[in-house]
Amino acid sequence: MKIDFPIPEQIPELAALWQTAFGDTEEFIDGFFFTGFSPARCRCITIDNTITAALYWFDIRHRGQRMAYIYAVATHPDHRGKGLCRQLMEDTHAHLTLRGYRGAVLVPQNDGLRRMYAGMGYRDFGGISEFVCSAGTEPVQLHRIDREEYASLRRRYLPEGGVIQEDENICFLETMAFFYTGPHFLLAAATEGQKLHSPELLGDVSAAPGILTALGCAEGTFRCPGDSMKFAMFRPLTIDAATPAYFGLAFD
């Protein structure tokens, strides 16, 4: 068994493992490897010349400290239950610490994974609220913006203690959402037919019904800062790591 960075020739194998583990579409996976992937931000386990487990991370920042958003932790079904995930996570934590990262953030997809990561030193922090609403009677004023303006405005709209997610984070997000701003709000959202999904609405959440009307949608699901549901988990990698208060953009 070997834990190491992948080489470019292994990208198809990594993509195949991703699809097996998560069942995402080819378009979604290609979007990640084109915009969000770097071999320097990936660790994988190889057994008998076959990648059996892998994870990735995005660079993020909180209060000036460099941190990692660990993403898409996957073990091939044939190799689960052998402790590979724990070994890969321990290796990654050690590697991140050596490179000057102060902490790691991840977003478990279910309670079982939340308990598993708690056993690796992760703790819940912050939270989000998620709500569904219908279109209003009057549209709000909004206009579409590019990723550079979105990243700049997001710093202004983040709540105190929020995690800054930029660069490859926003590039990857752009493959699945558009960016909008309006009076007192900032929005990332994707539409499918007359339904809207927003991975993050910052600012005036009461604008949601008018946003739906302006975008021609009948119904929408919005995530925003709040405390109605657990979301991200944090593990300090150094004793001076500052625990964030909010993490918003999860690429599920």
Give an account of the 3D structure.
This protein has helices at residues 11-22, 26-35, 84-98, 111-118, 147-157, 168-173, 208-214, and strands spanning 2-4, 42-47, 50-62, 65-75, 103-106, 123-124, 128-134, 143-145, 178-182, 185-192, 195-203, 219-225, 233-236. It contains seven helices and 13 strands. It is of the alpha+beta class and 252 residues long. Helix 1 (11-22) packs across helix 2 (26-35). The relative contact order is 0.17. The mean pLDDT is 96. A seven-stranded mixed beta sheet has the order 1-2-3-4-5-13-6. A six-stranded mixed beta sheet has the order 7-12-11-10-9-8.
List keywords for this structure.
alpha+beta, six-stranded mixed β-sheet, 252 residues, 7 helices, single chain, 27% helix, 13 strands, seven-stranded mixed β-sheet, globular
**Assembly state here?**
single chain
How many individual helices?
A: 7
> How many beta-strand segments?
13
Sequence of secondary-structure elements: EHHEEEHEHEEEHHEEEHEE
Neighbour order of strands in the largest sheet: 1-2-3-4-5-13-6
Shape: globular
**Structure class:** alpha+beta
Give a short overview.
The chain has helices at residues 11-22, 26-35, 84-98, 111-118, 147-157, 168-173, 208-214, and strands at 2-4, 42-47, 50-62, 65-75, 103-106, 123-124, 128-134, 143-145, 178-182, 185-192, 195-203, 219-225, 233-236. With 252 residues, the protein is an alpha+beta fold.
